[in-house]
Amino acid sequence: MKPVFPLIALVAAAPAAAQNLQNVVREALSKDPAVIEANADAAAAADDIRIAQAGHYPTLSLTGTQTLLHRDRSGRERKYKLNPGLQATLNLYAWGGVDAKVRQSRHKFRYHRHKTDEVAGEVGHEAGTLYLAALRAKELIQTARHNLQRHHAIIKDLQIITRHDKGRLSELDQAQARRLQVEAYLAEQTRILELSLSRLGRYTGTRIAPQSLNNPFVRDTPDSLVTRFRRPDLAQLPGYQAQAAERESVLAEGAARKSSRYPSINLIAGATRDNREIYLNLSWDVFNPAAHYEVKKNAHTLVAAEAKMDALLRDSAERGRSAEMDMRQSLKRAGIAQQQIAAQKKVIKAYELQFKIARRTLIDVLDAYSDLSNIELTEVAAQNDFRDAAWTYLASQGAVAQWAQAAPPAAPAEPADFGAPLRRWHDKISDTLRRKTKNKNKTVAQTLPDVPAGTNAAPARTLREPNPFSPTAQRAWLLGQAKKQKAQQAAARPAVKPPKRTDAAPPLLRVGKAVDFTAARSAPPVLGVDTTNAPAFAVKRTPL
């Protein structure tokens, strides 16, 4: 049976590319497609902010109308030329809908920016997990090779013995069978090593040589890692910050959906070859069931976002707590295993000497080899469990990039608030209108006279209507009272004496003298003066 030395030599003859875990993480964060995709999503979210801010600005569009066929009542067909035009639209008031969309876009941008850091941490953790898996397989292969060398030594001695004593061929067969078990385990670990290095090449772009794998935490202890990388507030983790921004985005989206259920007032100006116009356009979905269910859906989405935040916080706390405990227990196991290895080596040395003088059987020696190999594998597993726990602890604290002294591609900066001047203008107009309406309602409530008994008008406190588009009986009653008051003031206004006229006037129109109706019977009277009750200049018209 040929040993597996060619397989081991194949692993050791891999092209050298000296790479430690920190270099692997740096290269992964700079070239991995997932990190680049997250960064591009953040850039797209920055453009969404500018798109939402554009709602504060007017839109300008060119129009053109070409009538193909027109027939009037006479049946004649008329041809029209192309009628170009220009139209501008500006939103004046939308109940805060535009601002809500801007806030939603800003929170979405912050979500993607924090998500970029979270994705970078996940990519670095995945690359480090593959690196540590390859390192574990490499150290297990080294342990198995030591065990294989011990089997080769005992088989070599048995081959010499069986040349002179054919009755001990069975012991040689037993030793060769144990060697085959070790070779099978060695082949399995070699497969794991090759697979881990192949998968790790996805993040590095090149294959890493097994001999370049080294222990990244050789100088670290659980206390040193906890002291350097513990995060006092887990709410500052990139994943939690991303979910918090997502929650704020859901709140802003809910405000935008609610505002869409109210009227929208737009100023529209258009100019064509034949027409010029500027008008206000009010758009209101009076019946839109979809808007109602969108608001309900947004409420459920908000609950889901808050639950996800709570779950992420609990998961991070549990992972950090468990990893810290695992680090301490793994080092304790490794220390005990090292003591067992030293004791078992003494046992093997004694068994080998006793075997040569026929005081121990070959099975006793092979069992001692197996026990030593198992203890060595346990020690290697404990050391690698410590590294895995340390790597998990760094990931739970969001400190993978900090430990590797690496950073993902810089996310784009958040766009400036270019809509602030227009928003201040909108807010100022809204506050002014709201203040005037409030003062007007307050003045009307204070100066409104008591409603006379027997009238159909309702009390003032129930008829006050803040909506100017729906008049009430109170306002109609106030208008009637104002008209009566004006008529009374006009009747009570004192008469003004006009300047004296010098030209002669007809007898019936002369002012200041009595009119002789007896002398004027021959002619039909046109005008007469009421000198009894009316003032001197109150001329009373008589019907013809």
From TrEMBL:
Known InterPro entries for this protein? OMP_efflux (IPR003423), TolC-like (IPR051906)
User: Which region is the signal sequence?
Assistant: 1-18
Q: Where does the UniProt entry say this protein principally localizes? A: membrane
Keyword annotations from UniProtKB, A to Z: Cell outer membrane, Membrane, Signal, Transmembrane, Transmembrane beta strand, Transport
Q: Which GO terms describe its cellular component?
A: cell outer membrane; efflux pump complex
The coiled-coil segments of this chain are none
Residue ranges of the region described as Disordered: 449-468
Localisation: Cell outer membrane
Single GO molecular-function term? porin activity
Protein family membership: Belongs to the outer membrane factor (OMF) (TC 1.B.17) family.
Q: Per its record, how is this protein called by name?
A: TolC family protein
Q: From what organism does this protein derive?
A: Conchiformibius kuhniae
